[in-house]
Amino acid sequence: MTRPTATRPTTSAPARAAVIVLLAASFSVLPATTAPAHADTIRARQWGLEAMHTTEAWRTTKGKGIKVAVLDTGVDADHPDLSGSVLPGRDLIGFGASEGDRAWARHGTAMAGIIAGHGHGPGDESGVLGIAPDVEILPVRVILESSDKARDKARKTRGTALAEGIRWAADHGADVINLSLGDDSKSAHPDAGEDAAVQYALAKGVSVVASAGNGGEKGDHISYPAAYPGVIAVDRYGTRASFSTSRWYATVSAPGVDIVIADPDRRYYEGWGTSAAAAFVSGAVALVRSAHPDLTPAQIKQLLVDTARNRPKGGRSDAKGYGTVDPAAAIEAGAARKGADPKNATTGYRGQYFGPGPTAPVEESRPLGLLAPVAGGLGALLLLTAFALGRTKRTH
């Protein structure tokens, strides 16, 4: 396939006032103890692709013509599994680790690989294959890795980088925005600027996907931005996934345990978290958008709900939403839907924030306008149980 020339995100001035206060979760990397993995070993471990019926979806499209904005820690545009698929992006942090540092772009590269990895080598047979390998990635750096030495500075800083990043992506051609990030600490609260940015993106026809949260064993607090109206909030499925947040806003579920991910160090790791699940769903949305470009974000969200597999008893649960995303089924069902004006489907603040919800009242909102401090931890990001699966030879 023909791919665009990759360039790295442009950097904002370090002194800019809007600085994100969320940090990427720790990687907890263990020394590599396994022999270098063969290509087929890595592909064989990518159970999520089979679970989401991607082969069936690829009979229609692999996402060509769609741009997915990855708002994260940055993306390694030179990674062999992503080379040529990463567009010029934006750095809204302006400080912290840079390319070549161990604490640079690990989480973002992992998410981009889940979404758009195309492999490498003869026939692209080596490396990670994403759920939508023909999409383009638009990287927007809005958070720092937890191992970044500048994280203490970020923790003490309030800002609006996430809201700015959402608007920037919507204004620069994104069709889907992936938010594999969030704050589900005790101090987490809705932010008017973030909510407005989400509504802005939705009104422009951009689907917004976010991690439901990893705080299931730590108080199960509401996670933002997953809880904002109109967002496709993704929980995980798979064994050993009790960490996943269970809340009224969960829309669908996707693979989130034992997920093979690419890393800037050219190794492959296994990790878990609702951030990985969100990336899978962003890729699925990209496939649906590619097949049915006239459908609105609300229509696509409803398609995912209507065609979800493995529905919980009663049709929905706070732990799994309406079931597991099936992009092939959504693409097929989408043929019967007629496009609409996305501006007619946006929501936002209406009196009490979000209303009571179907299972429990929403916590009282706090003063708005600033991002919540990191404080109690970050529930929605990918956490690695991580061991190295193998190393590929650098191509640059």
Automatic annotation (TrEMBL):
InterPro entries, sorted: Peptidase_S8/S53_dom, Peptidase_S8/S53_dom_sf, Peptidase_S8_Asp-AS, Peptidase_S8_subtilisin-like, Peptidase_S8_subtilisin-rel, T7SS_pept_S8A_mycosin
Gene Ontology terms, MF aspect: serine-type endopeptidase activity
Protein name: Type VII secretion-associated serine protease
Ranges annotated as spanning the membrane: 368-390
Any one Gene Ontology BP term: proteolysis
Highest taxon in the source lineage: Bacteria
Classification of source organism: Bacteria, Bacillati, Actinomycetota, Actinomycetes, Kitasatosporales
Active site: D72, H107, S275
Membrane topology category: Single-pass membrane protein
Protein family according to the UniProt entry: Belongs to the peptidase S8 family.
PANTHER family: CEREVISIN-RELATED, PEPTIDASE S8
Primary localization: membrane
Annotated region (Disordered), positions in chain: 334-360
A Pfam family recorded for this sequence: Peptidase_S8
A GO term from the CC aspect: plasma membrane
The entry's keywords: Cell membrane, Hydrolase, Membrane, Protease, Serine protease, Signal, Transmembrane, Transmembrane helix
Organism of this sequence: Streptomyces gardneri
Domain Peptidase S8/S53, residue spans: 63-323
Signal sequence range: 1-39
Subcellular locations according to the entry: Cell membrane
